[in-house]
Here is the input.
Amino acid sequence: MDRRHFLRVTAAAGAGLLVSGTASCATSASSGPVAQTAGTATIQSNLSAPAAKAAIDALVKAFNDRKGSQVSVNTVASETFRTQLPSYLTSANPPDLFTWYPGALLTGYEKKGLLLDVSDVWQTMGDYPQAFKTLSGKVFVPTTTYWWSFFYRKSNFARWGVTPPNNWTEFVELCKTLQGKGVIPLGMGAGSDSPWTASAWFDYFNIRINGAPFHRELLAGRQRFDDPKVKAIFTPWREILPYTDPNGTAIGFQEATTAMLQGRTAMFLTGAFFADAAPKDALEDIDFFRFPIIDPKVPLAEEGPTDGFFASSKSPHVKELKEFLTYAATVEGQEVYIKNSSGTILPTHPKAKDSGTALVKKGRKHLEEAAEITQFFNRDSSDALQPTADAALVKFLQQPDQLDTILTTWQKAAEQVWSS
Amino acid sequence: MRSSTSGRLFHAVAGTISVLWLLPIAAVIITALRSFDDIAANGLAAVPQSFTFAGFGDAWTNGGAGAMWNSVLVTVPTVFLSLALSSAAAYALSRFEIPGRRTIILLMLAGNLLPPQILLVPVSKLTELLGIYDTLIALIVVQVGFGLGFYTFVLQGFMRAMPNEVQEAATIDGAGPVQIFWRIVLPMTRPALAALAALAFTWIFNDLLWAITVLRSSSVMPVTPALLALQGQYVSNWNVIAAGSVIAAVPTVAVFLRFQRHFISGLAVGAVK
Here is the structure.
């Protein structure tokens, strides 16, 4: 047959190769940052969830429409972003701006000289509270924040005839009442791909009992996980374990959200981002209360993770990127972002308007009332320490009587992370 | 009587296995046809309450179309180039007394046994030095480089099994090495080439690791990292991801169906040898 036929096919394939070869050249010239010549700063973004992606796209569009400097945004999967961030930063020609959060990881990169000093952007941010400034250092510009709390459906609480608790005793009473009505009181989504959600419980018990300063010292390696003070926080945790979803270490955070929305579980300790996993019509029915006070003498602290941008010190587009950071920190920039997001995040600028729903207003007040803000386990420590917490806490949820061994193992694993 | 009982048993067992095998695929397709609000309200495992093609539209417009094209731009030249180069190498290694050819073949195979993970950083730095980081060319070069060893190994085994008489006859008729390769060896290798082409297409089309190692811009990402990018930091729209997976599976399935006949005969030829 077919030599001729074969040759024809080969020739056609060869021609196809040539065409696609030139086509891919064209693609690379127009989009590869390596070939980047124009004065456009690139933002490497990990906001791959549809709602968050729409928000950053809108922010960039609003900025570019001002006809000043131009930026472009490049979204990659958050998981890819997290693992590739070191190679992005150390490459010869890194992206100019990155979405991220303040914390130990950034401080490490700053010490290596990889991050750009953006102090002059902070000159334009006089309205920002000192807390954000301390948190960000010289290299970070915060743009949004959100809160953690117990979320529940108002209609379900009304149906069960219960009200949100004001302190720990009432909280345990509430759990008991709900269980008596055949509902699982506490949702948990520490299985699947979200074992880190269990850390929220650890963080809260620690900042309620030992206070935020001790919590930060512990996470920075200046205290020990097998300290009696750490062991003490597991006593109240054990008290409410019988009321926690027995499937809590098997299902992921998104399924746990569904369980709460359907009323199979009554309440769920989670971040405000969970609203992205809820159908729009359910959001009006959602309310929350703060993690109950255990020791009234401890100053009130809340988890309020903050997100924003940092820049690479190798960027050739310093003027453009600083102009963008300045804009992203203004009231206008933040309102554009919030308006196009899913609506449960809060602006960092104290004068910027939030989305205005009752839930968000309450969330903002919730954070303002706190004397101290912690970020979250991995943000206050490091992404390397997070897996040690995941292993320890999931084990505790499954075998609470093994606590001593768990804490010793945790301390050993943490020491390895700190010494590396 | 006995044979019909065992036949029935065979069908029952085989049928059960096929159903189990197809179950995940059915789950993905059903998820792809649901709306996000339905999944969020009732959970992934619930009985579907909605029917919509919106997930496919979302996946296609959210970077799916561009990513698909990028995948084609990478996969087609890579398959072609690697097969062209490795068949030439296999021809030389199998039909000629090249000094140290055993070592060369073993070296090529040994290269394949290295876990690619230890080469990620060097490869990424190398592409940067060459100035091709974040371009599709880089991905093509890397994919060709990593595929060559295995393809050459398979093809040289196949070519070695060809009878020497054919080559001798051609030489007597006055054909040079290039002519023999082009007119005799290549056409005879077609089953193996077709089987390898189908395999290589699937591997390269489904690769994620090298793509995220040498690429950084979403505009040049092929389909697998684009699928990953549909997952959010906290929340994922499972219907869109499922729809994207279905779309991404279409080309490989098509190629496989097209080459199925060659694939099976290619395997059989290898076995008889």
